[in-house]
Amino acid sequence: MSSVRGQLLVATSAIDAGPFWRSVVYVLDHDEDGALGVILNHPSDADVDEVLPDWAGWVNAPGCLFEGGPVGLDSALAVGVVADVADRPLGWQQMTGRVGLVDLDGPQPHDGEFLGLRVFAGYAGWGTDQLEQEIEQGAWLVLPAQEADLLSPSPDRLWHEVLLRQRGDIRFWATLPDDPALN
Q1: Could you give the angle at the alpha carbon of 100 between the alpha carbons of 96 and 103, nearest 5°?
Q2: Which domains does the chain have, with CATH numbers?
């Protein structure tokens, strides 16, 4: 399987519980050693200004900390979409296109450098061949990402929105009830 870096993993009904239920994961990195991503549609109750007050003014609405995944919950990870890749802000590491990791211990950005920024507690991680196996087993749909997915002002609707914009039968996943047994 080729790398799914820069794409979305959208959970199917094969994942019926836990942190990945109805999740939309942006894949930041994927190679022969495994994969790393962040869950885009799990906002937490904590605001960024409570945890990282210096960064609160830079995050997009909602200004909360997001639950990025079940790994490394004691650390924060920031993902930023830059306005211009050629003018890289200090502390920004490109992952794909205009999307990259932001060093939260680094300098504050300047106005206009970022189109948006999100802060995640934890991340999603897969070991060697683990993600490939889960995709093969039907747990994930691999779909094209849009930069707007990373900065959605309505993260609770993102799973449905991503599925609805697809062509063909994949759109029908958006109509799946929360509990398929009640269908």
Answers
A1: 155
A2: 7-182 (3.40.1740.10)
